[in-house]
């Protein structure tokens, strides 16, 4: 088991600044090389505080603002225009950064691309869903309408 400090949010594991115990191979082969975590040390306690302060600054100020943003996101579907071939197959796939920019261009608000989770890869036009973790206790479900760009 390896003790790590998370520097980014990892689904199912924790948020930035959390100290977690994971298996050695997961830490050595995935979390540390991809920059999602660093090894825990006694001197790392100061680093944990700075990570948590940055997370608090990025987090939406109040639960009420998060609830309002959740309502706006869930009420109106977000349309993404992407390059597609015959029969609606996309050239590539829709990523979290595409969803974040589509939400911003629709005037629904700014969301962090790291908070967006797309359950299955979107590789075709049509209606899809994605979830956004606005706060620890507020999760919004966005309806995505993927259409072919002309």
Description:
With 150 residues, this protein is of the alpha+beta class. The protein is 31% helix and 33% strand. It has a four-stranded mixed β-sheet. Strands 2-1-3 form a three-stranded antiparallel β-sheet. A hairpin with a 2-residue loop joins strand 8 and strand 9. The longest helix is centred in the middle third of the chain and has 15 residues. The mean pLDDT is 84.
Low-confidence stretches: none
Task: Tell me the span between the first and last alpha carbons.
Answer: 52 Å
The proportion of strand residues reads 25-35%
Helix content: 25-40%
| SSE series | EEHEHHEEHEEEE
Could you say which structural class the secondary elements and strand pairing correspond to? Answer: alpha+beta
The count of strands amounts to 9
Shape: globular
Rounded mean pLDDT score: 84
Largest sheet: spatial strand order: 4-9-8-6
Main sheet characteristics: 4 strands, mixed
Q: How many H/I helical runs? A: 4
Q: Radius of gyration, Cα only, in angstroms?
A: 18 Å
